[in-house]
Amino acid sequence: MTMKYLLVIVVVWLAFIIWRNNRRREVEQRPAPPPAAGKTLGAPQAMVRCAHCGLHLPATDALPGKDDKVYCSAAHRQADQ
Ligand SMILES: [Zn+2]
Predict the structure, then answer these.
(1) Sequence-ordered list of residues with C-beta below 8 angstroms from that of 48, at least 6 positions apart, any chain
(2) 56 - beta bridge partners?
(3) How far is the CA of 49 from the centre of ligand 1 (A)?
(4) Is the dihedral of CA 64, 52, 59, 75 positive or negative?
(5) CA of 13 to the centre of ligand 1 (A)
(6) What are the extents of the domains in the chain?
(7) 59 has which bridge partners?
(8) How far apart are CA 49 and CA 42, in angstroms?
(9) 60: Cβ–Cβ under 8 A, 6 or more apart, which residues?
(10) What is the rounded distance in angstroms from the CA atom of residue 48 to the CA atom of residue 39?
(11) Measured in angstroms, how far is the CA atom of residue 4 from the centroid of ligand 1?
(12) Would 52 disulfide with which of 2, 39, 59, 76, CB 3.0-4.6 Å?
């Protein structure tokens, strides 16, 4: 009885591995997704650190300062200069 269950588990597990490999191959063969799709899914963004308070924020929201420093707000940029 136990062996039978074990066999079922192994078969299901193997089926899952094969299914996953096929899925991965499909994804690799598929052309790169359009840029719009990446935005809605929240593509990994570069995070930067405010040079004044140390807050981490997306690079797109950061304010550039002197010496390649970035700031979370105009107030912190002013405070650091
Ligand atoms: Zn700050």
Answers:
(1) 56, 57, 58, 59, 62, 70
(2) 49
(3) 8
(4) negative
(5) 50
(6) 46-80
(7) none
(8) 19
(9) 45
(10) 19
(11) 62
(12) 76
Could you tell me which of 48, 46, 65, 66 has the C-alpha nearest to residue 56? 48
Per-residue pLDDT at 27: 82
Q: What is the pTM of this model?
A: 0.46
Strand partners, 49: 56
Token pair for residue 65?
């300062």
* pLDDT profile of the chain (81 residues), mean per 10: 89 96 86 64 80 95 92 95 79
Task: Report the relative pairing of strands 47-49 and 56-58 from DSSP bridges.
Answer: antiparallel
Residue 8, by phi and psi: left (phi above 0), alpha (psi -120 to 50) or beta? alpha
Q: Do 48 and 56 touch, CB atoms closer than 8 A?
A: yes
